[in-house]
Amino acid sequence: MDDAKCVRCGSDFPLGGVYCPVCGARRSNVGRWVKEARNAATRAIDVSVEALGRASKEVEPAMERIMNALQPAVQEIDKAVQPFAETTVRTAGEVANRLRPAAQGTARAARTVADKTAAVVRPAVTKIAEKTSDAARKVREATRRRE
After folding, report:
1. What is the rounded CA–CA span in Å between residue 91 and residue 89?
2. Burial grade of 6 (CB within 10 A; 0-12, 13-18, 19 or more)
3. Are 13 and 32 in contact (CB under 8 A)?
4. Residue 4: which residues within 8 A CB-CB, separation 6 or more?
5. What is the value of pTM for the model shown?
6. What is the pLDDT of residues 62-71, one digit of tens each?
7. Per-residue pLDDT reduced to its tens digit, 31-46
8. Which phi-psi region, left, alpha or beta, contains residue 2 (left: φ > 0; alpha: ψ -120 to 50)?
């Protein structure tokens, strides 16, 4: 918010002026308060960032030592897990290969059932559609006769 502009009419206040030269409204302090709050928040953020930077620099050597100490263990775990991962991938491929024929058979059976169901239902649906069409025609004719 700009306290150099009058909140009532938007005119510019003269430098150091307390009242608007156009409408006489008193200059608002809100703009100055917002600016002060913004400056205080910026200073707080800057101080926090600086403190975090110092803390990070202090912790960095300890983290480096921890990472160096853990590195051999991580490499050993990687070696131990690698055969398990390879076996899992190979087994998953075998399962997929064994399931593929069953899945294809299921898909064929589903298509056959769908085709047979459509063949059985189609005549009834056609008959219903014809009767509905006839009924609609009769309703139209009756409506025309009443007009």
Report:
1. 6
2. buried
3. no
4. 12, 13, 31
5. 0.35
6. 888 888 888 8
7. 677 778 888 889 888 8
8. beta
